[in-house]
C-alpha cells in the first residue's frame, strides 16, 4: 500500500499546509481539506472528479466550530438540530442558512451549507487539533460507491495521505436534512 498512514497531529499538518487528506468517518472514508483554502478545495474536487455545483459538507467537533459558517441560533429548528448532534451512532448532517463567511466553492453557489457535528473520536480530535471544521465528502470518484476500507481508499487515491483510525460501523453515510423545510434529502 503506497498511502502514508498519519497520526492525528500529522493529519492536521496536511490540512494546515493546504493539502487534502482521506480519513475514516462514521460509515465511509471521507476526503477533507481546509474549507477556506480554495487551492486545497480545487485539489479535492479534482481527486473526486466532482463538479463545484454539488457543494460539500463541513464536519466539526463542536457546535462552536460551525457557528461562524451557519445561522444556527434563534430559529424554529435550532433545538432539533442541536439535539440531533448529541445522538451517538446516528450521524445527521443539516443543511442550514450560510453566513457570508462561507465561500461559494463550499456552498456550490447556494445560500445554504451542509454541516455536521461528528461523534467520531478521531475526526473530533482532528478538528480539535485544527480549531476549525474540515470539508467532508465521501472518498470516492464521483459516480462510484463510497469507500469503506483502508485498502480501497488507497486504491482509489494512490499516494494520498490517510489518517489512521477506524470507521464507526454505521451502515450508511449520514442522513442529510434541510432544517428550514424539515425534509430529508438523503
Automatic annotation (TrEMBL):
User: Where does it localize?
Assistant: Cytoplasm
| Keyword terms | ATP-binding, Cytoplasm, Nucleotide-binding, Nucleotidyltransferase, Transferase, tRNA processing
Any one GO CC term of this protein is: cytoplasm
Query: Do the record's keywords include Transcription regulation?
Result: no
Q: What is the uppermost EC class here?
A: transferase
Q: Which reaction does it catalyse?
A: L-threonine + hydrogencarbonate + ATP = L-threonylcarbamoyladenylate + diphosphate + H2O
Where does the YrdC-like domain lie? 5-186
The stretch of residues making up the signal peptide is none
A GO molecular function for this record?
L-threonylcarbamoyladenylate synthase
UniProt-listed GO biological process terms: regulation of translational fidelity; tRNA threonylcarbamoyladenosine modification
Q: Report the EC code(s) recorded for this entry.
A: 2.7.7.87
Q: What does this protein do?
A: Required for the formation of a threonylcarbamoyl group on adenosine at position 37 (t(6)A37) in tRNAs that read codons beginning with adenine. Catalyzes the conversion of L-threonine, HCO(3)(-)/CO(2) and ATP to give threonylcarbamoyl-AMP (TC-AMP) as the acyladenylate intermediate, with the release of diphosphate.
Family, similarity comment: Belongs to the SUA5 family. TsaC subfamily.
Protein name, entry field: Threonylcarbamoyl-AMP synthase
Q: Which organism is it from?
A: Hydrogenovibrio crunogenus
Which lineage?
Bacteria, Pseudomonadati, Pseudomonadota, Gammaproteobacteria, Thiotrichales
User: Which gene is this protein's source?
Assistant: tsaC_1
